[in-house]
Amino acid sequence: MTSEKQQNLTVFKIQGFTDIPELQLPIFSLFLFIYCIIIGSNLTIFLVILCDSYLHTPMYIFLMNISVIDIANASNILPKLLNILLTRHKTILFLECIIQMYFFISLTSTEILLLAAMAYDRYVAICHPLHYLTMMDLRHTAAFAVISWAVAFLDPIGHAVLVSKMSYCGSHIIDHFFCDVTPLLKLSCSDTSKMDILNVFDGTFIAFPAFFLTLTSYVFIISTVLKIKSAEGQRKAFSTCTSHLTCVTIFYGTLISLYMRPTSSYSPRQDRYFALLYVVLIPLLNPVIYTLKNQDVKDALRKLMKKVMFVEKYK
Fold it and tell me: Is the pLDDT of residue 37 over 70?
């Protein structure tokens, strides 16, 4: 019976946020607006950095990568959610669901590794400024970025393979707004011990080392900044990493709330809202946080806008 149901399972249904018809269109409008803001703001950051050679430094190159991640992660999840809200057809193909889960894990892992690389970059800039140009040249920056993307996209292959081979002999309704690992495992009647081992492996060799590098970097940064005698010197030194520290705090805060809570405290409703913070809030806030007090990015944006207006004027 189990085998038969597993063979017949070609689609899941995504629960989403509400079944009340009157709320579908307002929620659709809200998420469409948010999605457009995410794409527009992150694409702007990417183009500003790409077009201004003055910003071709390690920190901004990492920021370009973060912008790509934010665009990709939002595009991996929100268009399907928008379609569900608009058409009220909640089905998602089994393969489509596995692919969505794979890219969600991959992009999240990439961001974890890139944030660690950015923290190390700030550590070198503040604690070893005389060696910065040799320790964080473009060759090292490219290596950090390539390794982050490669490791993050190779690692979840195991998750995708294991989840795709599991039997789903119970309900086929995913109590979430996208295909995440936890709600999929809750639907499975197979042994999930291999997935548990894989999750421990990921935490031990990817997530924890990246978090430890980020935390250690900031311990040394804060220690070095506090040794600066003048308050103005401390302010200038710490201002170079406040944006990154803010994003790291929000990022790990949402992930810990989502994945590091006791099993007894899990609830589908809570999981949806915590996941919403990561999928929507972080890509929405990242461009604001990184540009709000960043004069270099503001100046580059003005120059880019002047170029665009000049081209439009003489077309």
Answer: yes
